[in-house]
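User: I'm new to structure prediction. If I give you an amino acid sequence, what do you actually give back? Let's try with this one:
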Amino acid sequence: MRAPCRSAHRRLRFLRRPYDRASVDGPRFRVRGHVTFALSGEAEYDKLLWWLSPAVEYYGDMGAVSGLPGVQHQQHFIVPTLNFDFLDQLELNLGVGFGLTNASNGTFVKTIVGWTF
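Assistant: Good question. You get back a string of structure tokens that encode the predicted 3D arrangement of the chain. For your 117 residues, that looks like this:
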């Protein structure tokens, strides 16, 4: 039997580099800027109802690794979400995000529609 609460980390990125398309004649990319430190994760209560799973997500961007800015200059968000499993293949994720620092963009709404094939 599965435990009623599980911690799911769909995306856990520590280091990333921003990319942009260098040319239209091929799939070449060039790196711009510095390596940044960004985290994200999700804790989900598995199946409150057969079709509903509440969750809390976290997204953060701490900035360039070479010189991390102060906490109030970083972006950190907490997003309470609801995951709806309407069909075996169809998932709808809805949430309202709240910025936790001065550099965060305040409040926002997010949605993800997922189809498993």
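You can read the tokens as a compact description of the fold. Here is one thing that stands out. The first strand starts at residue 5 and ends at 8.
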